[in-house]
Automatic annotation (TrEMBL):
This is Cbb3-type cytochrome c oxidase subunit. Residues 148-227, 234-314 form the Cytochrome c domain. Heme c 1 binds at residues 161, 164-165, 291. Its cofactor is heme c. GO terms for biological process: oxidative phosphorylation; proton transmembrane transport. SUPFAM superfamilies: Cytochrome c. It comes from Idiomarina xiamenensis 10-D-4. The lineage of its organism: Bacteria, Pseudomonadati, Pseudomonadota, Gammaproteobacteria, Alteromonadales. It is found in: Cell inner membrane. GO terms for molecular function: electron transfer activity; heme binding; iron ion binding; oxidoreductase activity. Heme c 2 binds at residues 204, 246, 249-250. The keyword Protein biosynthesis does not apply.
Length: 317
């Protein structure tokens, strides 16, 4: 924060503590002519006010809390830009990427700073690392048949993958359903793990400038016919002649190619929607999907367990 706001926080915080001290001292002294233990002359509904001091145990607690407040502010961050005498902080602030986070972690370690998040991560790795290493030594098929390993993989999936694929892994518009055994890049254990580790980037080019609106409708109609839809035969026939442009990726039969991640157009499973309007939209504007790489985020051992969970969803044991 700026120097102004840092000074503002320091003055406000310390001023408040001083005000509390003054208030406590004022309440501990008798500023009236009435002796302690005597009536103050006020009565309400039969209740008489008596000039009694604050209980000693109560004032001691107040003083302890005030002293602890000063000690805490001296040891830990809290007074503007002052970082505290212990060099402790909850996490490395202002990092915007994994690379920046790791650089900050290394820098904090070299400078002897105490970063709680880094400590917790190292402690977790020391405790759970051997467990995941043991899982990684087993095959994905073996783990997929192990309820305990599947439960661990599910928890990792919910924490990292469910934001896109849903908590039930059934996906949504633009995000693949992982339970239906329909795979753009292959559903074998090795391919699933490869996808998670390295990520995927799919690109469907736009044909809005190459085809007229009528031609887009014709190609979309033919594409829908490949999955057994009832369509206008004349439009489908006209679209078939232009499908040659699409066959370079999807194949002459429209069954796609897992080597390049092109979709199978004959199975009636649609990533972005299978209505006439949605297929035309895809043809006209293209699609660009990105599956992030998780190798550097989760590490290969955890990816191995997540892959086993995903494999189990479409391959019931």
């Amino acid at each position: 924060m700026s120097s102004f706001w840092s000074a503002w926080v320091i003055v406000l915080t310390l001023g408040l503590l001083v005000a509390i001290i003054v208030l406590l001292r004022w309440n501990m002294k008798n500023y009236t002519d009435v002796a302690e233990g005597e009536e103050m002359g006020h009565e309400f509904d039969g209740i008489v006010e008596i000039n009694n001091p604050l209980p000693k145990w109560w004032t001691y607690l107040f003083w302890i809390c005030i002293v602890w407040g000063f000690v805490y502010l001296a040891l830990y961050p809290g007074l503007g830009n002052f970082q505290g005498l212990l060099g402790w902080k909850s996490s490395n602030q202002d990092v915007r990427s994994l690379a920046e986070s790791r650089a900050a972690e290394k820098r904090a370690e070299e400078e002897g700073l105490i970063v709680e998040y880094d400590r917790q991560m190292r402690a977790a790795e020391a405790e759970y690392g051997p467990i995941f290493a043991a899982y990684a030594a087993r095959s994905i098929e073996d783990l997929a048949a192990d309820p305990e390993a599947v439960a661990v993989g599910q928890r990792l999936f919910l924490q990292n993958c469910s934001q896109c694929h849903g908590s039930n892994a059934m996906g949504g518009p633009g995000f693949p359903n992982l339970t239906d055994d329909d795979w753009l890049h292959g559903g074998s254990p090795a391919k699933i793990k490869e996808t998670i580790i390295g990520g995927r980037q799919g690109a469907m080019p736009a044909f809005g400038e190459q085809f007229t609106d009528q031609q887009i409708t014709e190609v979309a109609t033919y594409v829908l016919s490949l999955s057994g839809r009832k369509v206008d035969p004349e439009l489908a026939a006209a679209g078939k002649t232009r499908f040659a442009v699409c066959s370079a990726c999807h194949g002459v039969d429209g069954k796609g190619n897992q080597d390049i991640g092109s979709a199978n157009l004959t199975d009636n499973i649609w990533l972005y929607g299978g209505s006439q309007a949605k297929v035309e939209e895809t043809l006209r504007y293209g699609r660009n999907g990105v599956m992030p790489a998780w190798k550097d985020i989760l590490g290969e051992d955890k990816v191995h367990v997540v892959a086993a969970y995903i494999y189990s969803l479409s391959n019931e044991q």
